[in-house]
Amino acid sequence: MNVLDMIQKNEGYQIPDEYYTLSTEEMEKRVKDIKARLGDALFIPGHHYQKEEVVVFSDSTGDSLQLAQVAANNKKAKYIVFCGVHFMAETADILTEDEQIVILPDMRAGCSMADMADHHQTDRAWVELQKLFGDTILPLTYVNSTAAIKAFVGRNDGATVTSSNAKKVVSWAFTQKERILFLPDQHLGRNTAFELGVPLEHMAIWNPITDTLEYEGDDLNNIKVILWKGHCSVHENFTVKNIENVRKNHPDMRIIVHPECSREVVAASDDNGSTKYIIDQIEAAPAGSKWAIGTEMNLVQRIIKNHPDKEIISLNPFMCPCLTMNRIDLPHLLWSLENIEKGNIQNIITVDKQTAKDAVKALDKMLELA
Length: 370
Ligand code: 13P
Ligand code: SF4
What we know:
The protein is an alpha/beta fold. It contains 15 helices and 15 strands.
């Protein structure tokens, strides 16, 4: 039975309704008590895009790179309850010891970007790209990808990338091969390569639906970067129009965006960088400074709350949080923890041994460079 069938039959995969009848105080008390009882046997990493009600219980909060690093370094916790999305929990499983158990509180916490590249598509693309370019391509994948895609990259001597270390990893890749294939986020790939000096005319797009290379130039030899046609459905919602509105209504505001935004948005903003970079920039800014931020809404709201001395708005006033990140809420966290105590653990994330063996090569290369 696959996961979808199990979810539909509600065979342990889904939270019982009674959790939604509990008061917040009751749930918080129970989570605190379980954390105290389990001590170091339990570790709760939480991504910056998680809801506040969950982040308050995280033992470590960070961006994708930081969470991959803390998972790799934690040898004590028997249970890692990952407050983030599926690909992050897979990464944690790959980087931790066999006896450590990684749990995702809600299996529906996926990532639409990661779903835009599957290994059947990369297998087909690789054959076609080898025909066109021979053995001149190094594959890189944003960590926002499935374990199977990371394994494909590892098997072909490439590396994973996060938004914090993309420039470092892409620079390294060009010391290995003449061109790169960047999966699955075309925007992070394009923005990073452009900032490293690769002109847009030297970039092409691989369309995994039609299995074709989209390129407007006439000489394939000029292509240095092949961008997978994927994107983040959250960050694509920031537009140049949003930037024009902020420039008009708040001319003294500094605009900072995540590099998952389109090239046009990044080019029109004042600064761009990873989740951690954005947090650090606002942290270091003087009181009274004004900011419009183009990234996920839970994080923007937390930044606003933590900096009452600064004027901060979302670049897009109609922006929503990442809906899949939001699947993890306090009831799901409590349910996961109570399942551990009952010895009835649900939603264990396990990556099969061969996939993990190949994927870890790509992750280790990144961690070595980061
Ligand atoms: P970072 O944590 O690398 O900034 O990535 C943002 C993101 O979209 C996570 O899903
Ligand atoms: Fe995926 Fe974008 Fe949500 Fe991150 S913010 S989990 S990339 S959909």
